[in-house]
Amino acid sequence: MMLSCKEATRLMSMQMDRELSMGERLQLALHLTACAGCRNFRKQIGFLRTVTRKFGDQIDDSK
Amino acid sequence: MALTFQDIEQHRNYLLRYAIFQLRDETVAEDVVQDTLLAAVEKLEAFAGQSSVKTWLTGILKHKIIDAQRRMVRDPLLLDARTDEDGDLSDFDSLFDTQGHWGSDAPRSWQSPDQSLSDQQFWKVYEECARRMPKRTAMVFAMREMLGQEIDDICKNLDITATNCSVLLYRARMSLRLCLDKHWFGGSPLEKT
Ligand SMILES: [Zn+2]
């Protein structure tokens, strides 16, 4: 059974917070090989993490 | 070199903005910052100078924020649990077709995202996008991604289920991604609300 993009986005979000099961990982990997939209999504939520971690340092003292 | 009250006080605005981002409530944030400054003054001698004053203060602030979040989550007046807590994700349905595959809004690649990090304008858009998230969603997201807490600790602290926690994080990522996609990478200007 092929994952939908909606399900894939849920799994990709979960993967940022906990380990996925073998089954979940396999399904996700299969989906990602076939879906450019979800590959972009994955990169982008990873970028959100980088950005949010950096945000604290970006706050300007002078304002 | 001894630290003075001025050395601490000059970071008040930074601490306040940091706390507001986390707590989404100015009054609570003011209290937390006040508390932090006081705690810092009380242990001025404890500041060993291995880190910058700002880093030291932020460390104290983080603990105070976590305490405040714990209190806030139990106070129904401060958080609107009804709008934030349900697991309804239908607000993202329009992104997908009936089979659950991306519709016309499938994520397109972002052009040189890393360069954005050194662009002041980017941070303004980011802050505004983050501000648009519902309170509880924003709080859980900040705990996870800014304070770097583990998801189990967040659920325990906030006394919410693991499923709920993961739904809130999903919603935060979806909405923040969409907002940046539209207003930064897509170039459509952001109107302040
Ligand atoms: Zn997909």
UniProtKB/TrEMBL annotation, chain A:
One Pfam family it belongs to: zf-HC2
Residues of the Putative zinc-finger domain: 5-39
Lineage top rank: taxon: Bacteria
Protein name: Zf-HC2 domain-containing protein
Automatic annotation (TrEMBL), chain B:
RNA polymerase sigma factor 70 region 4 type domain sequence ranges: 127-176
Pfam family, one: Sigma70_r4_2
Protein's recorded name: Sigma-70 family RNA polymerase sigma factor
Keywords: DNA-binding, Sigma factor, Transcription, Transcription regulation
Organism the protein comes from: Parachitinimonas caeni
Domain RNA polymerase sigma-70 region residues, every copy: 8-71
Keyword DNA-binding in annotation: yes
Entry annotated with the keyword Amino-acid biosynthesis: no
Listed NCBIfam families: Sig70_famx1, sigma70-ECF
SUPFAM superfamilies per record: Sigma2 domain of RNA polymerase sigma factors, Sigma3 and sigma4 domains of RNA polymerase sigma factors
